[in-house]
Amino acid sequence: xxxxxxxxxxxxxxxxxxxxxxxxxxxxxxxxxxxxxxxxxxxxxxxxxxxxxxxxxxxxxxxxxxxxxxxxxxxxxxxxxxxxxxxxxxxxxxxxxxxxxxxxxxxxxxxxxxxxxxxxxxxxxxxxxxxxxxxxxxxxxxxxxxxxxxxxxxxxxxxxxxxxxxxxxxxxxxxxxxxxxxxxxxxxxxxxxxxxxxxxxxxxxxxxxxxxxxxxxxxxxxxxx
Length: 225
Description:
Largest sheet: 10 strands, mixed
Strand content: 25-35%
Radius of gyration: 16 Å
Helix content: 10-25%
Distance between the termini: 42 Å
Low-confidence stretches: none
Oligomer: single chain
Number of helices: 6
């Protein structure tokens, strides 16, 4: 893959010691020598210790090279502020945003990059995993269907739908159209509404996929069961 098609991966973390290592390992396994930009919200558990193990041990990187990981600490956290910081700090032309408690298990690099020539962003499928068990896709999870959808509209939320637990952009797109840094949540929904109102299109692609593991504080998990 040519250097201009390399991918920087933005991961936001706050006390994610249980899953952060699984997330990073999956990114290394599926992407060709990615840059990882970790935006940490003052974790006080083992999150950063685990991340630094990936920086130091070359055997954990596909192809025998170390993982290129940049750790940034953010204060006065908001989802949009952290993502905008990650985009500005990334060195590659393409950005994958993934939740720190998601494990990547399907990613077609060439296809997804080609899709960004037509769509301003692509987001992927999420398989909900509750304490190791795949659960029925109810509530918010019902959006993650098995077919491609252009400009997905959520009847449940009565607005356009997009989700940053697994999303893919050109870096320049997020530089030109940053996320709202004042929002405490749903920054992805407000962002996609602005994109679509500007006649830009988005794509949901089920062939981009993660296992999304349960966390007590995960907003996606409200109303599980």
